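User: Is it possible to get a 3D structure for a protein together with its bound compound? The compound here is nicotinamide-adenine-dinucleotide. I've pasted both below.
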Amino acid sequence: MKLAGKTALVTGAASGIGRGIARMLAHEGAAVAVADIDAAAAHTAAQAIVDRGGRAIGVPMDVTDEQAVNAGTQQVVEAFGGVDILVANAGIQIVNPIQDYAFADWKRMLAIHLDGAFLTTRAVLPQMYRDDRGGTVIYMGSVHSHEASPLKSAYVTAKHGVLGLARVLASEGAAHNVRSHVVCPGFVRTPLVEKQIPEQARELGISEDEVVQRVMLGGTVDGVFTTLEDVAQTVLFLCTFPSAALTGQSIVVSHGWFMQ
Ligand code: NAD
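Assistant: Yes, that's possible. Here is the predicted structure of the complex:
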């Protein structure tokens, strides 16, 4: 097991990509905190890990709420003794053209993706900096950390933003053995994506099948969705890389949709 003795805090881990990452990190021996705004779903996802022989707890946490982030992180430290890995993954999607984009939606998007990334990072750093024990922080970016798509102004802005935070953390954290990265998936069929298919069909005036084939998979080299497993494997690779040669990077996992 590659992560025996490590503790991971994964946000937005009650569903989709976060849940897949939590499952894989636990499978590799990490004690995992499944943090999510949906407390019941977080507990269910944690219990599923425990039922498979892993160590996990559900942690209710709204990543936009400073007190909730600090209290949830404290709960993880009390349960497992520290935090070695943070995966700042919680996210939502709201699609609309810029001229119709509600300011409240814009602020909510940036709060969840950017405030959430900042607040969770700041909350775990005292654990990672303690005695320079170090750790790895992974931000969930997207191909939209590098590319634009219509209807996704706030999302593309937020996903570009996490690149900056990851690079600053790579610089500041190096002295304490902390590394940071952005993992940038292409489309993965999670609830976040399923919701967008009819919404984009309506906004773009095309069929749902065209949204899938053209908008979501048209840029890939093989017309295939990225999977939860693909993203979780990438996170595991970054968390277990043996030296600081790899830090401050963005890794795109998208079937060639974006090549850097
Ligand atoms: P999902 O909807 O399946 O899961 C998102 C989780 O985040 C949910 O459990 C939700 O309750 C939680 N969440 C939402 N707001 C929260 C908050 N304020 N505090 C804490 N938790 C909150 O979505 P997903 O597709 O698994 O997306 C996870 C991440 O991956 C997001 O950052 C998303 O932008 C990113 N991403 C997804 C795709 C994709 O194709 N699915 C591609 C690239 C990047």
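Strands lie at 7-11, 31-36, 55-60, 85-88, 135-140, 178-185, 249-253. The radius of gyration is 18 Å.
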